[in-house]
Write a structure and sequence with these properties.
Blueprint lengths: L19 H8 L4 E5 L5 E2 L14 E5 L3 E10 L11 E8 L6 E6 L12 E10 L2 E8 L5
Antiparallel strand pairs: 1-2, 1-3, 4-5, 4-7, 5-6, 7-8
The structure holds zinc ion.
């Protein structure tokens, strides 16, 4: 992405002890999902224990960032000063991520052109030297 999706007046996301490894991977432009080392259940967002088997042990799996729009909405009200409207908030089904979905934005597209099932790919927005946020853009269809 060539420019910031949200204006500088938008507060940046904050990490905690559970999500810090996810944000560290994001800063390296790696999209990861958390995986239970006991039952292999995949979860996103990260959580301190597995919702399936209550085990605390987990590892991180890097995924491709390919997916499709599961559902979306167009936001017509600004959430930060200088916000370009409307913008797209979408739930993205990730292809190789154990069935998890991620809430993000679809960018580099006319918001009115977004549709359910639209193939998308990951694009990183660098908000600062150590903070990158995943966004998604329409994927080129191969003939
Ligand atoms: Zn588990």
């Amino acid at each position: 992405m060539s420019e910031r999706f949200f204006p500088d007046s938008m507060p940046p996301p904050l990490a905690d002890t559970t999500t810090l490894p996810w944000w560290q991977a994001a800063a390296e432009h790696r999209l990861v999902v958390q995986r239970c080392t006991s039952c292999r259940h995949t979860r996103l967002p990260p959580a301190p224990i597995c919702p399936e088997c209550r085990t605390a042990d987990a590892d991180w799996k890097e995924v491709s960032g390919l997916g499709e729009v599961y559902t979306y909405t167009l936001v017509h009200r600004p959430i930060a000063a200088g916000q370009e409207l409307p913008f797209v908030v979408a739930v993205i089904s990730l292809e190789d991520a154990g069935g998890v979905r991620i809430i993000s934005n679809v960018v580099d597209v006319d918001p009115e052109a977004v549709s359910i099932g639209m193939p998308v790919e990951l694009v990183w927005e660098d908000m600062s030297a150590d903070l990158a946020v995943p966004r998604f853009r329409p994927r080129e269809q191969k003939p």
